[in-house]
Amino acid sequence: MANNFxxxxxxxxxxxxxxxxxxxxxxxxxxxTKVLIHYGGKSAVRSGLIDCMKAELDKAEIPYVxxxxxxxNPLLSKVYEGIELCRAEGADFILAVGxxxxxxxxxxxxxxxxxxxDVWDLYEHTKTAAACRPVGVVLxxxxxxxxxxxxxxxxxxxxxxKRSYNDDIARPKFAIMNPEFTMTLPDYQTQSGCTDxxxxxxxxxxxxxxxxxxxDSIAEGLLRTVKKNAVILHQDPENYxxxxxxxxxxxxxxxxxxxxxxxxxxxxxxxxEHEMGGMFNVTHGAGLAAIWGSWxxxxxxxxxxxxxxxxxxxxxxxxxxxxxxxxxxxIEAMEEFYRSIGMPVNMRELGIEPTDExxxxxxxxxxxxxxxxKGSAKVLYEEDMEKIYxxxx
Length: 393
Ligand code: NZQ
Ligand code: ZN
Description:
Blueprint: E1 12-15, H1 23-29, E2 35-39, H2 43-46, H3 49-59, E3 64-67, H4 76-89, E4 93-98, H5 100-114, H6 120-123, E5 135-139, E6 151-156, E7 161-166, E8 174-177, H7 187-205, H8 213-235, H9 240-252, H10 268-280, H11 284-299, H12 304-313, H13 323-340, H14 347-350, H15 356-369, H16 382-391
Parallel strand pairs: 1-8, 2-3, 2-4, 4-5, 5-8
Antiparallel strand pairs: 6-7
Helix pairs in contact: 4-5, 7-8, 7-9, 7-11, 8-9, 10-11, 10-15, 11-13, 12-13, 15-16
The chain binds 5,6-dihydroxy-NADP and zinc ion.
């Protein structure tokens, strides 16, 4: 059954070698008159990309200020710093040069500039945003999909809460995607990125509330493509074609396309992982790999038809004649795939050893963040979340 849906993907994508040279034109098109160039720790400076952005903006006669230092699992304190700087300098356009963390920090700054009061209230869901300043992206890692998504995820370092706020008004005006920029990524980041984008589509795939054949076909094709190219990149990180495949897949995996006609998706693995990120600062994609197998084994019987389809159409497992057996073979094959690209399949392999109290705390927080329950493959409550965390140790 096809559910009604809205599909809104307004981000202009400029893809390929040399795409960064379009930045001046794109900022002007989006109405920016003074830019905040926002970036992370080191990589974009080291690669010369920040200098390149400055040169391009100079050429286009667009003034700018800059703020680096965004960390993975981006922090609220940096968002406040960005809002203050933009106000002081009169910057009205945020150019995110980096990955999901930089883009999400940029979206939060853009919300903060356009709304009264404390921007964290949005992430606590005690307020909604009336407006958002424009954000543009120069992407350096294929992963979170924030370059086209409506989402922003921020960590409040004062209480360890990692929370998301979703609104179409924050979708970036443009995304510059040159696959060459991703060639300097450490393998762990490349593979965490591939894991994350696959999960964005899997969250929309393992559902009980209806789906469309066309959406399933797009989703399965995307998943097979990322799976294949992740393995290529594990051996050959400078393979341009493979970098291009996963870069485009990362955007399509999270702009809504692979969810059209479904029931809104499951997203429990993401919610479970966000608590691990908030408490232990783990890399998001690796955290997803560490929790997914336990989640899948906990829920598969309640969503058997989708797990069987996944096993056969994505993991290329032969149907054994028994649905449950086939579904489990699919889950095992997925874990084997994770291992083959250096991803963890449990918390120990991820490098964290939460105590019983910490497991309980994560489950409590996760249930609160979900408004009490979450999931479509199977609806999970706090006690289910705690069980899955325990299975994943
Ligand atoms: O800080 P630098 O030095 O740039 O290093 C970064 C960072 O350490 C490095 N990196 C990025 N591009 C590089 C590079 N290193 C070498 N060469 C390059 N070209 O990679 C590390 C990870 O960067 P980050 O931006 O954190 O990665 P990602 O894109 O995976 O973003 C993760 C964040 O996005 C959130 C996650 O929770 C996490 O906080 N998510 C955002 C979503 C959204 N807004 O739609 C959806 C996702 O589900 C996710 O939750
Ligand atoms: Zn994700």
